[in-house]
Amino acid sequence: MTKKKNHPIPMIFRSIILLSTALFSNKLETLELINMAGEQRMLSQRIAKDYLYVGKNISTMKANRQLETSMKDFVRIHKQLLNAITDPEIKNILAFVELSSNDFKTTSKKEFNLDNAQLVLDLSESMLEGSQYIVGSLQNSLEIKNSNVVNQAGIQRMLSQRIAKYYIAYQLGIQDENTINSMKETIKQFSQNLDTLIKNRSNTPQINIKLDDINRLWKIVYKFYNNIEKGGLPLIVFNSTDKITKKMDEITKLYIAIHKQ
Fold first, then answer.
1. Domain containing residue 183
2. Count of beta carbons in the 10 Å neighbourhood of residue 8
3. Would you say 144 and 259 are in contact if contact means Cβ atoms under 8 Å apart?
4. What pLDDT sits at residue 250?
5. Residue 73: how many CA atoms within 13 Å on its side-chain side?
6. 254 assigned to some structural domain
7. What are phi and psi of 9, to 5 degrees?
8. Nearest to 244 by CA among 149, 158, 150
9. Which phi and psi (to 5°) does residue 5 adopt?
10. d(CA 228, CA 231)
11. Exposure of 81 by Cβ count < 10 A (0-12 exposed, 13-18 middle, 19+ buried)?
12. Residue 86: exposure state from Cβ atoms within 10 A (0-12, 13-18, ≥19)
């Protein structure tokens, strides 16, 4: 009996397969970069929040420890982004973000007062804006639909820390209209994003379980956050927003994992 010969894959098809594999790999790498830049968004808010909690002498040990870790993480991720990204425009934004983070380091070592607290808030907004621009630029270079859901889940990490930042800023005495409006808008955006993520059709059972956990917690704690002018619950706000951030980070990574299957 004559054995059937295995015909080699024509060179043109081999090239197409290799190209497709390379493109898919690049998409995954870009998706990871989006996640990293998204984490910088969160850290920009967490760093400021921790600084303000220390200044208010609330949960000082935990906030100091978290601040130190967050600053190290910010520097580490910043270096990784610099090494991975070649686009000159994005590199220029990264340079600006680095300047803002250096200004924060300098300010954080000075004696705490309301002027320095306001400066830290302003710097955190600059770091956030730069990191958001980087995420958007990376998304534009990615042609897979679910990069949006990865970004949206990642935004939730930032929004939860942003809530705690404005809550404690108000308790410190930064009680202008911008603080209240920013808080209310952040809560509104988190609620809308959470609803969108819950309805997302690509969710795995594991993702749905984690989103349900967050939704049950959110239905309770968002009322505390909305009472920013009343205050009185800084520890609950600190701990609940950290819990939400951690769970949303897990969900973000699960969305990325979907593309690796």
1. 30-258
2. 8
3. yes
4. 97
5. 17
6. yes
7. -70, 125
8. 158
9. -75, 140
10. 5
11. buried
12. exposed
| Measured distance CA(247)–CA(245) in Å, rounded | 6
pTM for this predicted structure: 0.87
Rama region for 7: left / alpha / beta (φ>0; ψ in -120 to 50; rest):
beta
CA angle at residue 141 from 139 to 145, to 5 degrees?
55
CB burial readout 223-248, b (16+ within 10 A) else e = ebbeebeeeeebeebbebbbebbebb
Tell me whether residue 12 is in a domain. Answer: no
> In 10 A of CB 55, how many CB atoms?
21
What amino acid is encoded at 123 in this protein? Answer: L
Nearest CA-CA partner of 52 in 181, 162, 184? 162
Q: How far apart are CA 119 and CA 231, in angstroms?
A: 22
- Name the domain count of the chain: 1
Establish if 15 belongs to a structural domain.
no
Residue pLDDT, tens place only, 219-261: 999 999 999 999 899 999 999 999 999 999 999 999 988 876 6
CA angle 121, 36, 238 (to 5 degrees): 45
Q: Is the dihedral of CA 100, 105, 111, 112 positive or negative?
A: positive
Does some domain include residue 11?
A: no
Question: Which residue type is seen at 36?
Answer: M
Helix 147-172 with 11-55: angle, nearest 10 deg? 10
- Contacts of residue 29, defined as CB under 8 A and 6 or more positions apart, other chains included, come to 84
pLDDT mean over 30-49: 93
